[in-house]
Amino acid sequence: MTVTTRRNILGAAVAMTIGCTGLMPEAVAADYPAKPITMLVGYGAGGQTDLVARATARVMSADLGVPINVVNKPGAGGAVAASELEKSANDGYTLLFHSNSVVNSAPFIMKQVSFTPESFEYAGMITAYQVGLATQKDSPFSTLSEFVIWARENPGSSYGALSPEARLYIQEIAKKEGLDINIVPLKGGAGMMNALLGRQVVLAFSGGIHYRNPDELKTIASTTTFRHPSAPDARTIEEEGYPLGMDSRTTLFLPKGTDRAILDRLSAALKMAASDEEFKTFTASANIPIMYLDVDEAYKEMSATYTKHKGIMEAAGLTAQ
Amino acid sequence: MDHLMTGFMDVLNPGTILWVAAGVTLGYILGAIPGLGKATGVAVAIPLTFYLTPVAALGMLIGIAKGSAAGSAVSAILLNTPGEPSSAPTALDGYPLARQGKAQKALKMGLFASVIGDFVSTLILILLAAPLARYALLIGPVELCAILLFSLTFIGGLSGGSLTKGLIAAALGVFFATIGLETETFIPRLTFGLLELEDGISLVPMAIGMLAVAEMINQAGNMKALDRETSAISDSAAHEDRVITRVEWRRSLPVIARGTLIGSVIGILPGLGASVASFLSYGATKNASKTPEKYGTGMIEGVAAAESADNAVVPSSLVPLFALGIPGSVIAALLISAFVLHGLTPGPLMFQQQPRLVAAVYASMILASFIMLIIGYTCQRLFAQIIKVPLRLIIPGVLFLCCVGAYMETGSIFSIYVMLFFALIGFFSRKLDFSFVTFLIGFVIGPNLEFTFRQSIQLLGSDITNLKHHPISIVFIVLTLATAWWTGRSNSRKAVVK
Amino acid sequence: MRRANIVSGIMLALFGLVMLFAVIPWQIETAPPGFVSPRLVPNITMVVVVVLALLLVIANWRAPVNGDDAENASPIARVELMALLRIGAIFALSIALFRWVSSLAAGASLMVVTLLTLGERRPLPLVAIPAAILLATWFLFYKVIGTEIL
Questions:
Q1: Which of A138-142, A248-252, B10-14, B292-296 is the least confident region?
Q2: Is the Cβ pair A2, C98 closer than 8 Å?
Q3: pLDDT digits (tens, 9 = 90+) for B437-495
Q4: Does residue A229 form part of some domain?
């Protein structure tokens, strides 16, 4: 908190200097970046998003010619880091690398979080999360429609959910098809894997970690709007007739009011990362697809998904707690 | 086996040995410094995994993990400030030994027990990873809930003075663990609108506050008396106070064997962790002893029991990762990072894709065990000198390092407030004889206890008769009741007023 | 210890009651139907605390009085309480310095003032110990590891 206060003062001082000397912001942007950049990450060190952030920071730093210091500020699904970014100076030296779910989903789930797409500026998006419905390889069903038929014949089956979104999917499907399914709460990727491999649940919502064990687990449907590159044959939930596809991507967030030239510069560096060989090997082995979006596309994606997710969650009767 | 030989070839070159040794040394020293520890090791390790070759990076990570687990015994024994809750039982007997001038003996036993527990557990990982992980999957939420309940009761019962006070501390620990977003509904609990509390109170600053800061305040209050003791006894000159005698070895070896077994089993199971292992091992040893009342006054077996179990958890917690791709611990999550960064998918595929690298990982684990022995043995003589330094010179530095360690976890001053709050609780619980250790165990396993309880309600379809499909959990429920009855009875025999 | 047990038992029971009837209903909302109530486990733990705390009070109240000083003596000595207050004040000062001056000043003051409070008067340790520890910390994190911790 002290840091932010100091940064705010610094930001105010910089703004005043600019104002007094009549220096235009473009002049600042022209020699950007001139000093090390701080990259906040809203998850703890060592997690999947943190790894992508660090790998991205490495390529970007080489391209920008200044060091990028990755700082983990975990808490409330990234909301703690995002609030910190909101209070930072919009000079392009503090940015947040995080899933855009902190803006397009978290506000509908957590009452304390009230971000909108207008809360930040965006310098692009780089990877996507392969969220979907996973089951054991030898399950009697391989698609969502087959699961619905099976679940109708086997009432009282168990489904593993690790978040309110995960519950939403099965509740909506169960409501529409009139199914009787027990929802078992799970904690994190490890809990989900344990429950699936230990056959405590027949189906589970996965953030993509189940691709690590392709000999025993399979995807029956992706809950994104695109088919997963790791399982191109599994249809999306929308193809199956449920308009519930929700995408999340790792996004470069900047404080509101950051100069467009700075965003473009960062976006160019982000594009370098997307095509970097080492970055590709790493994301491939972690089953993380690269789906680069530039500044304009990122803004469009952000407001489109915000509106769509809001609609889906409100229709499902999910209220922010 | 062929692969293992190749793996050894890959590891046994000066470059890799150097990185493994660097990892063990760094881990051991960080673990030995009060306030710093595994959390610091994690911060250390992440940037490194980007720059080293896979074998060197993995070797170094494993070295840090093993080293910090063993090193945390040092501050527990010498200063009574365990770096992590899992070393708290080491301090129970290690610190009295150090105050009696037998610091070197306690340090040596801590080191040997650590190395043996670690080495045997590593062998188990190498030989039995796949079948064991299969068996561990039989332990579902219903079984786990019963096991957790049993552990909590068992540990609450051994807290000493009074079962009532022990259970109050445990219940308070579980209560504090409920703070934050509830995992099922995402409803915030007792957060008072603070975003920092949404993910709950983080263990590192809390443990540092209760274990280290509170103890430093306590020692500051009794500094004169403690310093007088120090100048009187210091390090004993007698040879048998500095080494482990043959008789002590004979008494301690079965204890180490049991500790290793407990640690290995608990490491494989999801959601229990090193602190439960070391306390169960300590408690089992105390219960099996003919002189349980002597524990807490400087029994060498107490150190052996706690450290062997604590360290056996590290390798065995990797079993689910290697066999099934499930990260079972913080270190496992870190290893995943190192694996994927070098283009290797953690999980069963590793054995087909890159058997040679897996073998190299195994080889560096064995190597790390041996390096740990050498480094620990060299350092303990040096570390033991700490006991001679007057407390007024030690306390300020320890307090500062506690702040560094707590701050690093979240990078926010809020962690310092958490640390101070629990230092206060820790201080009063020490004085009023409410076991702060039971409180910590309650806090550590609280979230899992609650969560598996909720899962069980769903899995059993809210019908208790469905328990008949879960024989393992019935066994543990019976054990829990028996433990409560047994400790309650032996407690009521003692006078209420102590 | 007897008196301390009774006092702490009463305090804990009060804490539990306040939590049960005021703080938990105020700070934990009820869940939508179909969920296990988020209040369930906090409530269980607080009921356990209240019951056990009352048990502690009753057991100590009824225990035979043998009139020695030990049962009424405070388990916390005066010097220990003073140490707690002093170190608390030192932390307050350091946090203030951290927020309004700098982290370096906070770290240095934490160590120097504690050294002074604990009775160290020689100038060399007063300067050398904090300087050495700060330098070592800086060297370890910024140079060896390359992680900025602030």
A1: B10-14
A2: yes
A3: 889 888 988 888 888 888 888 778 777 888 888 888 999 999 988 888 877 776 655 53
A4: no
Taking only Cα atoms into account, the Rg of chain C, rounded to an integer number of angstroms, comes to: 24
Structure tokens given for A29: 């942007």
Determine how β-strand A37-41 pairs with β-strand A68-72. parallel
d(Cα B220, Cα A26) in Å, to the nearest integer?
A: 58
> Of A182, A205, A222, which residue is a domain's last?
A222
Together in a domain, A169 and A253: no
Region of A138 on the Ramachandran plot (φ > 0 left; ψ -120 to 50 alpha; else beta)? alpha
pLDDT at residue B400 greater than cutoff 60: yes
* Tokens encoding C54: 């009352």
pLDDT at A5: 41
Q: Which of residues 149-208 of B touch C (CB under 8 A)?
A: 162, 164-165, 167-168, 171-172, 174-175, 178, 182, 184-185, 187-192
Q: CB–CB of A100/A312 below 8 Å?
A: no
Nearest Cα to Cα of residue A161 among A139, A179, A184, A182: A184
Residue A137 has pLDDT above 80, yes or no: yes
Q: Residue C87: which of B187, B217, B222 has the nearest Cβ?
A: B217
Among A1, A2, A39, A181, the residue to mutate for chain C (most C Cβ within 10 A): A2
Is residue A12 a part of any domain in this protein? yes
pLDDT at B254: 94
How many other CB atoms are there within 10 angstroms of residue B308's CB atom?
35
Q: Report, as an integer, the average pLDDT of A229-245.
A: 88
pLDDT of B491 reads 60
Query: Which chain A residues are within 8 Å of C150, Cβ to Cβ?
Result: 3
pLDDT value of residue B160: 60
Looking at residue B235, its pLDDT comes to 54
Q: Which positions ≥6 away from B155 have C-beta within 8 Å? A: B170, B276, B279, B280, B283, B437, B438, B441
With respect to residue A239, please indicate whether it lies within any of the assigned structural domains.
Answer: no
Query: What ipTM score was computed for the predicted complex, to two decimals?
Result: 0.92
Q: Which contacts of A146-155 are long-range, i.e. CB under 8 A and separated by 24 or more positions?
A: A146/A220, A147/A203, A147/A220, A148/A173, A148/A177, A148/A179, A151/A177, A151/A179, A151/A180, A151/A181, A152/A177, A152/A178, A152/A179, A155/A179, A155/A180, A155/A181
Query: What token pair was written down for C35?
Result: 């969920």
* A33: preceding bond cis by omega (within 30 degrees): yes
Q: Do B138 and A189 touch (CB under 8 A)?
A: no
Let me know the angle formed at the C-alpha of C33 by C29 and C36, rounded to the nearest 5 degrees: 70
**What residue spans define the domains of chain C?**
2-71, 78-145
Domain boundaries, chain B: 2-493
In this predicted structure, the answer to whether residue B384 has a pLDDT above a threshold of 80 is yes
List Cα–Cα distances, A49 to A18, A68, A74, A97, A162, in angstroms: 36, 16, 11, 8, 17
Q: Which domain holds residue A58?
A: 2-129+247-315
Q: Is residue A234 part of a domain?
A: no
Which residue, among B28, B155, B58, has the nearest Cα to B487 in the 3D structure?
B155
Out of A58, A76, A187, name the one closest to residue B50 (CB): A58
User: Which residue in B268, B323, B128, B143 sits closest to A216, CA to CA?
Assistant: B323
Cα distance between residue B388 and residue B385, in whole Å: 6
Number of domains in chain A: 2
Shared domain check, A140 and A93: no
Q: What is the pLDDT of residue C34?
A: 67
CATH number at residue A52: 3.40.190.150
Q: Which amino acid is at B441?
A: I
Q: A115 and A200 share a domain?
A: no
CATH number at residue A207: 3.40.190.10
* DSSP symbols for B255-270: HHHHHHHHHHHHHHST
Q: With beta carbons less than 8 A apart as the criterion, state whether A223 and A230 touch.
A: no
Is the pLDDT reported for residue A260 higher than 80? yes
